[in-house]
Amino acid sequence: MVQELTATVLVIVAGLFPVINPPAAGLIIMSLVPAATPAQLAELAWRVTVNSFAILVASLSVGAYVLSFFGVSIPVLRVAGGVVIASAGWKLLHAPDEKKGHAEAAAAADGEAESLGVRAFYPLTLPITVGPGSIAVAIALATGSPSEGPRGVHLAAVGTALAILCASIYACVRFAASVQRLLGPVGSEVAMRLFAFILFCIGVQIFWLGLSDLLGSLRTN
């Protein structure tokens, strides 16, 4: 039982952690809300973590059924998710600093707390932290559950894996400002652009995986 529990936890964490990439998500979120105070950043980290947990639970539990109900296949989800993630990475990669700074200053003057509350789900949780790529991976992992239905050890493993992932998301978003100060202005800018490029590449990779599956299904038919 312990071996099965450990193996399931490792599969879920290893499958989702690289796609979610909490360290990159934390720095990217920080670059989008540089005017946030420590209290606001703590609240934002909690909101993003709760939203991420809800999305992952829904994807692992009923995601496949929802897609089946609407007639959406995993390859199509990957294609659409890849486009969304790639476009988000492209926008972050080419976002001018001056405009971001002016926008954040205006938001701070006009109620930054309310602005962060509205943006906590979109775009800071979806698609920056837990995007369509993570949803596709979670649904794919869920389809590999035992055919006789989830057992207690399986549910415990999913809960443990989600706790690890959500704790890493919270820590990376909560302490992103400290990491940013450690890196300095230039280092933070370089890291943000690098992670934005990685986000763009992840989107292209997910798009290509979905497109390859679709093209493969056409050839077999």
Could you characterize the architecture of this molecule?
By secondary structure, the chain is mainly α. It has one domain (22-215). Helices cover 85% and strands 0% of the residues. It is built from 11 helices and no strands. The chain has helices at residues 2-20, 22-32, 38-61, 63-70, 74-93, 97-109, 112-119, 124-129, 132-142, 152-174, 176-220. Helix 2 packs across helix 11 (176-220). The longest helix has 45 residues, at 176-220. The protein is globular and about 50 Å long. Mean pLDDT is 82; it is low at 98-110.
How widely separated are the two ends? 42 Å
Largest sheet, strands/sense/barrel: none
Q: Which percent range fits the helix content?
A: over 70%
- Note the total helix count: 11
State the total count of DSSP E strands. 0
Main structural class:
mainly alpha
Q: What best-fitting shape do the alpha-carbon axes yield?
A: globular
Q: What is the succession of H and E elements? A: HHHHHHHHHHH
Radius of gyration: 18 Å
Mean pLDDT: 82
Could you tell me the strand content as a percent range? under 5%
Instruction: Give unreliable regions as ranges.
Output: 98-110
Q: Give the number of domains.
A: 1
Brief overview:
The chain is mainly alpha-helical. The chain has helices spanning 2-20, 22-32, 38-61, 63-70, 74-93, 97-109, 112-119, 124-129, 132-142, 152-174, 176-220.
Keywords for this entry:
85% helix, mainly alpha, 221 residues
Please write out the topology:
Elements: H1 2-20, H2 22-32, H3 38-61, H4 63-70, H5 74-93, H6 97-109, H7 112-119, H8 124-129, H9 132-142, H10 152-174, H11 176-220
